[in-house]
Amino acid sequence: MSKSSRSRGGDGFRKTTFTVRSFLPGVARFVRNLPALVRARRADRVSDAFAEKIMLAVTAVNECQYCTRYHSDLALETGVDEGTVRQILEGDVGTAVDDDELPALAFAQRYAEADESPGREAVTDLRAAYGAETAADVQAFVRAIYFGNLLGNSYDAVRFVAARRVRRARRCLEATRTGVARAAERVRERCPI
Fold it and tell me: 3 in a domain, yes or no?
């Protein structure tokens, strides 16, 4: 069951977005995830800097411009250096973080690449690395940012399509105006008044 769409056609917009059919289920998944996200924030098993790195790893896959800007700024505010932010956004988590953070960021990337279906082995590996509670916290952050990424990308997709239609309509109007002007000129030439 496809939960989102990665536009691959000739429409020019190539980021993962919600589809008409996937939007409401996506909202429902986000709402179901909220209690886990609140628990993760309150438990403080995942530091703010670590949470921002996790969110950037997902955002690097989905390329949401709004989440990139926002979470890059938050990461810097929490003490993550600019080089690390840049490496994560380039998808290079292996050299961007310490070995203790790598399993979470690798999971985050896999989750985004696999359209929210990273597979049982990825979840098992995450739990083995952090224990059940911290793994659940990591998953809560990953699910939240994935939803935000797709929401931002969907907004951009709508804007992209609307702008394309406006450009097409302007070209059509210009062609019509030019055609009418030429026809009027021909009439004037043939029937001088």
Answer: no
**14 falls within a domain:** no
**What HEC string does the chain produce?**
CCCCEECCCCCCCCCEECCHHHHHHHHHHHHHHHHHHHHHHHHCCCCHHHHHHHHHHHHHHHCCHHHHHHHHHHHHHCCCCHHHHHHHHCCCHHHHCCCCCHHHHHHHHHHHHCCCCCCHHHHHHHHHHHCHHHHHHHHHHHHHHHHHHHHHHHHHHHHHHHHHHHHHHHHHHHHHHHHHHHHHHHHHHHCCC
**Tally of domains within the chain:** 1
Whether 11 maps to a domain, the answer reads: no
Total-model pTM: 0.83
**Alpha carbon distance 24, 120 (integer Å):** 25
For 36-83, write each residue's pLDDT tens digit: 999 999 999 999 999 999 999 999 999 999 999 999 999 999 999 999
Q: Tokens 């797709």 belong to which residue?
A: 150
What's 156's domain CATH number? 1.20.1290.10
